[in-house]
Amino acid sequence: MNLDPTVIAIPVYFLLIGLELIAHRYQSIKSYRLNDAITNINCGVTSQVSGAFLKVFTIGFYTFLYSQFRLTTIENSAFTWIVAFIAYDFFYYWAHRMSHEVNLFWGGHSVHHQSEEYNLSVALRQSSTQTIWTFIFYSPMAIAGFDPLILLSVSGFNLLYQFWIHTEAIDKLPKWFEAVFNTPSHHRVHHARNPKYIDKNHGGTFIVWDRLFGTFKAEEERPTYGITKNLNSWNPVWANVSHYADMWKDIQSIPKLGDKFRYVFHKPGWLPEYMGGYRAPYDIDKDNYKKFDLSAAKAVNTYVFVQYIVLLAGTALFLFNLESFENNLLQKSVLALIIIVSTVSFGAMFESRKWAFALEVTRLVLTPVSLFYFIPGLQTQSLPLMAILVYAVGSLIWTVLLRKSIIKPVSLKA
Fold it and tell me: pLDDT value at position 70?
């Protein structure tokens, strides 16, 4: 079984999201939209699924450094765990800060900032590529002699801590707590697109690093959330590649090779002076600002919500049983592909894409076939097999009945 704390806590995440929904209703806070929340969680799903493959490189690299180049061996203990947790948060600060200050790294981290809402579902909106650019920052811990299992533990709990700070339901906390720890107030600033708030409050658990290194900003007026160039899509795969696509267009337009290289590692928004120079963040007109919100038919929203519950259950089974797939890369890849294609299909239905109906029908046909073929023993288990077939056939009928609603023209709501 997968013992990653962030995976084990999945049921708790959704319990807290439910409690936040209740709190927001009581506080008259409108921060949840079905399409936005599902896209946030979809990005987390794709991140976890892709992470099942990338961990070979990330934790594998750390383990290699630890086994070959560590200066000493630090014995595991409660005190070691506390020191490692603090050390990890320090290196997290720099990895996080560089993810905002280096254009290439921002391509990975920008996914987490794309939502124009701020709620607990945003905490689950994680990138599939960020770890490629940031895992190297924790190398000093391997060389110092912290066990790889300690790294996995403290990194998981660091991420768990950051879940609860993605909320508007909690105002400012006692001054002593706000002085030391990252809080909802501090992190709302971090997720803002207001120019004075951008690139502030990078700490994970502790806000002291920002205070020490000059990146702290206290929350003043209510932030406007999102990134300076909105994603305008509910597609989690596009969410992960959109910034790289923009980078590629810019690189092609830059004539000098040296400036192409500088563009990759300069701050996001940078261009050579002869092309206009740095494109600074700008204030928006809040009175005329409209959030991206393509409206699908209510019947389609209901269908996607039901299908999404099924997908989350299947994803949880996949993540909790990763070890059983380790010796069969094809099996793991097919199951991962089913999950990712499902998230894309749901996003396409929210956007009423012309190809959404065809993709969903294809998904519903190929999913049971793939499960039947790639999961050994399923053919002999009559009850699960019957449940999968009933689900697929019932969903196909439902999809056909919704065909006109799925592909109807969409409108952009205010």
Answer: 97
Same domain, 209 and 339: no
Q: Determine the Cα–Cα distance for residues 374 and 332; give it in Å rounded to an integer.
A: 9
Is the separation of the CB atoms in 37 and 125 below 8 Å? Answer: no
The model's pTM is 0.92
Q: Which of 181, 213, 245 is the last residue of a domain?
A: 213
Q: Which domain holds residue 304?
A: 294-412
User: What is the C-alpha to C-alpha distance for residues 243 and 240, in angstroms, rounded to an integer?
Assistant: 7
Nearest residue to 395 via CA among 316, 296, 317, 302: 302
Chain segment 354-397, per-residue pLDDT in tens: 999 999 999 999 999 988 887 767 767 778 888 889 999 999 99
Tell me the two tokens of residue 216. 């702290």
The CA-based angle 18-21-27, given to 5 degrees, is: 145
Reduce the DSSP state of residue 208 to 3 states and report it: helix
For the chain, what is the domain count? 2
Same domain, 199 and 303: no
